Structure prediction request, 906 residues.
Amino acid sequence: MSTTPVSSDAIRELCAICGDENTRERPKGGVYVSPSSVEEVAAVVSFANEQGLSVGPAGGSTERSTAELQTDIVLHLNQLTQVEHYDCGDLTVGVGAGTTIAQLNQLVAADKLMFAGDPPSPERCTVGGLLATASQGPLRHGYGAVRDYCIGIRFVTGSGHRAKGGGRVVKNVAGYDLMKLLIGSYGTLAVITSASFKLFPAPRQTRTYLAEFSSAAEALEFRYRIVRSPLSPMCLELVSPGARKLMRPGMVSDAWVICVRASGSDNVLARYRRELGSAITRELEGDDERHTWQAIQNFPAAPESGDAVSWRPVYPRRIHITAPIRDVGHVIEALDRAASYGYVSVACVGRVGIGHILVTGEEILPEAGHPLHAILDELKGDLKDRLSVRVAGQPNPWPIAPANLTSMRAVKQALDPNNTLRGREVF
Amino acid sequence: MHLPAVVDQLRKIAGRDAVLDRPEDLMLYEYDAGVRKCTPAVVVFPQNTNHVAQIMKLAGAAGFPVVARGAGTGLSGGAIAPEGGVVLAFARMNHILEVDAENMRAIVQPGVVNQQLSDNVAHLGLYFAPDPSSQKACTIGGNVAENSGGPHTLAYGVTVNHVTGLTVVMPSGEVEHFGGKAAESNGYDLTGFYVGSEGTIGIVTEITVRLLRRPERVATLLGIFETVDDGARTVSAITAAGITPAALEMLDGWTLRAVEAACHAGYPLDAGAVLLIELEGLAEQVEEQAEAVREVCLQQKAREVRRAKDENERALLWKGRKNAFAALGRLAPSYYSQDGVVPRTKIPAVLQFIEEVSKKYGLRIGNIFHAGDGNLHPLILFDPRDPAQLEMVQAASTEILERCVSMGGSITGEHGVGLEKRNLMPLLFTADDLDVMLSLHNVFNAGNVLNPGKLFPTTRMCRETTGPSNHPVLAAEGM
Prediction:
């Protein structure tokens, strides 16, 4: 799997940096290391850079198995779990890249605070992985993307230098905004070692309202009504019939569902109910509500192992498409066309209030190839130019070549001139 | 290329009436709202992206520096050209190109005035959230360059949170389009990276911004306190109660008296401090929060909590806040404004320190600031005709910013680094941090034609990287 055989001298050197217990050869070539400090991360990258070895940073492997990483060195950041700062009065926190989202939420929950990142598998997904893949969940609708609440970042560049951008305060414009560059760069620019975030007061009470529609178009029209109303829900999610069947295999309904999650006092929730009107068919609270949002957050859930009818890849494919709000309907039509040829079956959820759709697909006929291709083929004409499409679980996360490759290469040249970080995978 | 030839070429590109080179005209472009000055060699008014691209190509060939300028309301010297520099003034690129209400976006040219955009989309129930105090004059291009904030950034974030696409003329003269109307862009987030880059790596000629829906209800409260300390402690107490106001501003007693004398906003003349608190959203939610905020204020020893009864009263309270800088202009020939940031729990301590600095230097310092996000604005009054005073003012402000950083804060929350704070960057960033930023600068602006001498320290850094040719910014002449 490794493109360069890693010499035994190099392995010895990596053992000297990280310790024998944190270094091991990978079965198909290459080395796995799990440094226990930022200094060790910098030493590993610096050594790799000098030796011409490629490095792939890894977190909780929620999108992709480390076994699939085709780099000479897999750099696992699971040991970087330090809390760098936390003061509940400031609503800010800084933690190591290996901290899981669940650990972070546990840290701040005691003070009735909340971290707004809710990626799939929060018990395994790490802060570093969340940032590198710009991952998100249903809270994206009401609280923004991680780029909106990440206030500082520390990292090791491709040449092994430790550096940082931003800081620890919620408002700060000193220097270039390196958070923006590293968030969603899929580990190609630097190894993120820690980050600071803005926190939010945890809602004291929430309720979820479900409205069912016989078509995506009707569901999206309802979404418009909400977006144009004075309501500002925490979450506004579309769930396709296919997605519902994946979440609950026994599901027979073919309805498109809009899920609205609101927080506030009884009085405020009553207002939501009135505004949403007769379209609401169910209301959820307590465990039912929690389970529903977990299912959406984890969509599509990884299959149980050994299940013959399960999805073939252990790591479900998640294709994130972000469109101008008005184009969401066109994207869903394209997904329908892709599915109608019988090659693929697609299912989606999405933060449709901000133009986001999360798609998964399965090839039905062996010759169909990757369902992504069938979907991309259907995103025709200038629609394609208006979209952002990202797939975390494959070597190149951007299946539509970005229009700014020249500028992206310039950034890469500045931060990782020797293409040490995931170089041969992406660039 | 000599200056007359440059002027001639610029006139060919932008038109005869679009170039200024007479000293009496250039004087108007030698300053911004800060304290630095330098007269540019030429001012040119491009009218489209193509003009800007041609000017950048000319700049590269002829070797003159280019500095973009919006309305000149910046406070960090970002729009001041170096000697021999050409100012690109965006006054004629002031069109709203598209309002797309369905997608909640607008596409604007950089010279559009911030307030003008909100006014223009008000009939659709929409507005542009970043609201610097200078919003009646400042341009969106300037907001993008500096990543400007304003009182309502507490709830809605700064400019970068409201920009989804940019057309940028690179220093080479090439035109790039980053992002678009979608909330995410394909590939690296270059849109986000360019916002706040202070005109040092490209010139923005079109901006796609997010528009927000106007809230159903707004409640504006004035919490009146006997002491600055009580007011400052209330800031964290409001947050601790789980409330995020849309805006949470503080004026100390001395400042509010000065403002009241000029604006008659209705501030109490005998208070130690006031908090201006704005809550926005669903009517039910706003009413509950207004009650909760009133209780918190009273628990924290507020003497009184008033609520604006109508839009006129609200506008009056905000008039006082937004015109405060100008009001202080009545008391001294000039003022120096800083915008250091501290974690909000450190506000009482930092205000006490500012008071000590005021006594130490014998300088009058007023405080009127974005308390909710810890973004200070100490206003130091002085007479610029006395060079000794200016030196003292700068020393005092450096002491304040050093203290902000030592408390875990920053040297700037919304004004930018520019000329003014470039040599304070090492307080926040190590040589390695700055090297990373420099290397990014240099891959885009290798010839250093764009806004030289800004953002990066002129003082020698601890560690050289790969040689002087890679550090054109360091080699640039200081002003």
In short: Chain A touches chain B through 82 residues (CB under 8 Å). Residues 38-51 of chain A form the longest helix (14 residues). The domain at 206-297 of chain A is CATH 3.30.70.2190 (Alpha-Beta Plaits).
